[in-house]
């Protein structure tokens, strides 16, 4: 069985307070985008292990047992004693990009195992299991535009469609540590909630919709801020960093012509139409 976990972007990201446990409460909107990994499971007949992970595409740091698709398998295996599986993961979504690629893989693995082995888990239960694997993971179960608060794990649906807009996404060859990015933030409540801001026309977002991480990340990595400026120079209706970076996206009108821009040899670049 084959599935295609997709990435997300953050539309706005307000970090509102630091919690006693060291984490931060925030509000953001997760929006699915058509940048995808490929993930396949087949019955595993050789050896006496319960899983075997084969990886291709972009490299992922860390051991196989720390891969979130393996963690997802182990979680359900612990509850349902699943048959052994052979896992193939083709990595196309850049990691450490604020695109939630690892979280997407984990959530899609849960959904695929549920279907393949007829576990009968409801969407709510899958979300609960996904949340154990990472705060962002649960979003990818429904995979629809979502307003998130708490530590990014308390969801409500948001009525919004960017279908038809062109997305230009650039992830430069720069690593931003999410933990460090959080540690440099002075949390505050925005003047108006993102829930209201997102209902404004997309043309007004530039003025009101903010990713709080930009304030600390751009001075440290000016090349990331420069990508956002380039997006606006090229006519973006709205541009922002996603999550804690380092990727930056621009939303462009359906008929805009997006030129070739050199963002560096190792930069990941995607251009395409939003489909939801
Ligand atoms: C900022 C977002 O990209 C928004 O989409 C995500 O919430 C970040 O999620 P992530 O990359 O999966 O991050 P995690 O691996 O959960 O957390 C990394 C580190 O960031 C800090 N962290 C994370 C989430 C949060 N709400 N408050 C925090 O302070 C913690 O120090 C944590 O140890
Ligand atoms: N299947 C996976 N794909 C990518 N990274 C994985 C995976 N499993 C575990 N990881 C680990 O998770 C880390 C973060 O990866 P991810 O692709 O989710 O990045 P991110 O863009 O920072 O996500 P976020 O939007 O949640 O900040 C990687 O550095 C890697 O060590």
TrEMBL record:
Belongs to the GHMP kinase family. IspE subfamily. The active site is at 8, 136. Pathway: Isoprenoid biosynthesis; isopentenyl diphosphate biosynthesis via DXP pathway; isopentenyl diphosphate from 1-deoxy-D-xylulose 5-phosphate: step 3/6. One of its GO terms (molecular function) is ATP binding. Residues 67-141 form the GHMP kinase N-terminal domain. This is 4-diphosphocytidyl-2-C-methyl-D-erythritol kinase. GO terms for biological process: isopentenyl diphosphate biosynthetic process, methylerythritol 4-phosphate pathway; terpenoid biosynthetic process. ATP binds at residues 94-104. It catalyses: 4-CDP-2-C-methyl-D-erythritol + ATP = 4-CDP-2-C-methyl-D-erythritol 2-phosphate + ADP + H(+). Catalyzes the phosphorylation of the position 2 hydroxy group of 4-diphosphocytidyl-2C-methyl-D-erythritol. Keywords: ATP-binding, Isoprene biosynthesis, Kinase, Nucleotide-binding, Transferase. SUPFAM superfamilies: GHMP Kinase, C-terminal domain, Ribosomal protein S5 domain 2-like. Its EC number is 2.7.1.148. Residues 203-257 form the GHMP kinase C-terminal domain. Pfam families: GHMP_kinases_C (PF08544), GHMP_kinases_N (PF00288).
